Amino acid sequence: MAEGLGIAEFRGARGYRPAYYSPGMDAARPLRRDRRLRRGKADGVVNTRLVRAGSAVVLPALVLFLFSISSTGTLPRSPLEPVFDARTAASFATTLSTEFPSRTPGTAGAAGAALWYRETISAFGLPTEEDVWSQDLASLGRVELRNVVTVVHGKSPETIVVVAHRDNSESGRAEDNASGTSALLELARGFAPQENAPDLRPERTLVLLSTDAGAFGGAGAERFAERSPLAADAIAVVVLDQIDGRGRPEIALAGDVPSSPARVLVRTAAARVEEQTGVTPALPAVWTQLNDFGIPFAEKEQGRFLARGLAALTLTAPRHAQTEPSAAAVGTRRLGELGRATESLIGSLDTSLGEPFRTPDSLFFTDRAASGWAVRLLLVVALVPFALGAVDLLVRAARRGVPFRAALRSQRTRLLIWLFGGVVLWIGAKLGVLPTGASLPLPPETTLAADHPFASLSLIGLLFGLGWLAGRRRLVARHEPGAEERLAGFTVALALLGAIALVLAATRPYALCFCLPSLYAWLWMPLGGALWTRIGLFLAGLVGPLLGLFLLARQLALPLLEAPLYVIGLATVGYVPLASVLLAICWLAAAAQIGALAVGRYAPYANGAEPPPAGLLRESIARLLRVVVRPSRA
């Protein structure tokens, strides 16, 4: 039988079995599968098993995060009891809000309030210094600002800074932080020199700082933190802002950079407040802290100090509508409680030992805190399953020979459209439609978010719409795209999202909170499914940015629809860095392509024509050259 056959042909002949063959070998031998997927079918291109296996690496990071959660001790109380008098402080607040109801920076009322404060505190026998400068503020223009500094010299050059802003906004109440200013005056009265009295100088130097433009982003606090030598020697900063409200006392922790005050400082402040009020002060919710780290954003003045490496926090009690006859008495009681808590906190800081408090990034819970490095590690490691699935998808798509070029051009076009939108906003800022000024947080009452310049915003929207229509010409489907073309569009968009995530992981890991939902929700969309399934996955990917806007709106008491306008204002004044704006534009471009795929409106650039026809930009340049070159030749 084997005569005349080669060894290979003989072994491959039908019916041949080797001598060692047994009937069970066929059943034990695994069936061979073709590694190359069938063309034209998009189902099964995402290796779900690989993604699930990659999620195992998240478990060790989660364990490290849980182990980093710990409690922190508090500084001991000072043996001296607080002498803060609530009635005297309330009288100061009433005088300030009555005589100078409008204290908008740069106005006569603001200058008069600064003079009144300086004369009042000088009457206690304490010297004051005034720092006057000019600064460009959003919605105000260039105005003259004043900081008033009072120094109570101690035995050590190290300083404890207590801050309260003196101004109010154009549409704010007359009593806006009159309580914080009155608390500074009452604290100064307690440290005023007295005849025939023992030496009551503090161990550390006490600095009482009355700032200007606190309701407009904290320009005065930023000025002091940047330029004053007293700030360089500060071990801690305590900010007082509306401490006469009826609500539950709160402690603000956010900074202009992803940092927070030292744990022991926060815990000591909470303990001193609870001792005086009988209520545990509220800390920002965990999601709010992550949101503030991700942007980062700090409405209160402690953010300006944290950005300069100074441990700072803000004590506040939110105000509500006060219609009861006893509202004034309730405000006086809360003012006295938080005033005594502040004085007790100063005493604890004054008698503490060691170096100035640091500003690590920590995630605070009710009575515990997690280390920031563990949170950042968990967010970065959470990228690993997506990265494995996305790389595997890219390799599978490349093996199938999907048409990437047309998908890349489609993604590039969408990116250019959103970049054009960013340029339109920049032009609007230059024309005065959008706010400009110092790189500081905008007050919630800013013109963009509250007054709604509909005509100007509509013009900006119309200009962007025209650019979108012009750029969309090559993205209109002339025929139903094939499975390979849709897969190419998904893969390119997911690759752009992965690149954005890698940049965020290397530069600002907390911003991954906004990006992670879109990564994992949109990773499953190439698996196919019904239209409503795809739309549901697409909407699930928008949860991160939408949740961030919701938390910001609740934090500033803004309607949800006004939060995007407020964020645009933060970008036009420069508070949100340009790099963050560019990353957001790239994410929007990827989301636009994913959305088109989800609703079945995606088409490859110029319907996949090779070479593609000239786009709007090349056509415009060619027409310009024809207009310029032809007359010169003639």
Write the layout of secondary structure elements.
Blueprint: H1 7-12, H2 25-28, H3 48-54, H4 58-68, H5 86-99, H6 108-122, E1 128-137, E2 141-152, E3 156-165, H7 178-190, E4 204-211, H8 219-227, H9 229-232, E5 234-240, E6 250-252, H10 263-277, H11 286-294, H12 302-306, E7 312-316, H13 327-350, E8 362-364, E9 369-371, H14 372-381, H15 384-400, H16 404-430, H17 447-450, H18 454-471, H19 483-507, H20 512-523, H21 531-541, H22 543-556, H23 563-572, H24 578-598, H25 616-633
Parallel strand pairs: 3-4, 3-5, 5-7
Antiparallel strand pairs: 1-2, 2-4, 6-7, 8-9
Could you name the CATH homologous superfamily of the largest domain?
Zn peptidases
Tell me the number of structural domains.
2
**How large is the radius of gyration?**
32 Å
**What is the CA-CA span between the terminal residues?**
88 Å
CATH architecture verdict of the largest domain: 3-Layer(aba) Sandwich
Strand content: 5-15%
Helix content: 40-55%
Number of helices: 25
Q: Strands of the largest sheet, in order across it?
A: 1-2-4-3-5-7-6
Tell how many strands the DSSP assignment holds: 9
CATH fold field value of the largest domain: Aminopeptidase
| Mean pLDDT over the residues | 85
Q: Which class do the helix and strand fractions yield?
A: alpha/beta
Supply the CATH class of the largest domain.
Alpha Beta
